[in-house]
Write a structure and sequence with these properties.
elongated; 6 helices; alpha+beta; Type Iii Antifreeze Protein Isoform Hplc 12; 3 domains; single chain; 6-stranded antiparallel sheet; 346 residues
Amino acid sequence: MRANTIIMIVLAGVFGVLAVVLANIWLANQRSAMAKAGDVPHDTVVVAAVPLKFGDTLSTDKLREVAWPSGAVPTGAFTTIKDLLAGEGTKQALQAIGTNEPVLATKITGPGQRATLSAVLGEGMKAVSIRVNDVLGVAGFVFPGDRVDVLLTRSVHSDEGSDKSFVDVLLQSVKVLAVDQVADESKENPQVVKAVTVEVSTKDAQKLTLAAGAGQLSLALRQAAGSKGETTERITLADLTGDTPEDVAKRQADLDRQKAAEAAAVEERKRANEKIDGLAQAVERVGNKLDDLSKVKPTPAVAPAPQPQEVVKEVVKYVQPAPAARATIGVFRGVKLETYDVPRQH
């Protein structure tokens, strides 16, 4: 047998023994660590035994107690089911709670309270509803618990006489409390809604109320973890097309001139109609007078006694008057009467 083969066999045996020794040391350390972990003090924490959704009533069959390290008990957790259900009246879930998730005081109502928006509101916060539609409400993909930006679109009358439209970001990272009258955060199917209720401060509630009458509000859905504010700027029509303010002003001036011309044409037609109405009324008045005169009976006259008169014979000669050199001609153009003074042709 060659020397190299013998050396390889010896090395393989040494490495095999070394691997067995290291494995035994690792297993011993693991058993020691598990023994030490068993000495760590534990408490009990109440968790959900089944999935809970908004408005579910809490009961013993929906809860259970599990062991929990004493130093890692969540704030607001209950140690026993009895403590959680203590008080007069039932308690309800204010948001979705998953199986084995600790039931915290902030996620449930007080004894006898109902699961309403007032119980969900944070300290000093207000609930305000915004009217939306299938477009402004992000096509129904906004759910309770989401965060949105509120946009305000409005038009103002400028000093140049034209209206300017623009969009501002009114509020950022606003929490949605409910869509229509549903506040359940566990809903997953999108639906077209008419109103979205958001949680805002008192000042922001005033802004939303004023903005609802000043323009049109719309929502922009934010990333689930994107609660940080960002720098925004006003967007105008010029930003959409890349036109300069002069271009926009020129187009607006053309539109204003077109509107003025249309208004002048309407006023001209109105005056012509008034003239025609006046002529018709005058003709009607003359006709009424003629009818009245035709109804009057003439008074019979008494012939006086004949008196002798001197008879004078007169000769009447008819002289043809010379025709006028010019004549006036009236022409109707549509509803407008135009007159022309033209020379008479002999």
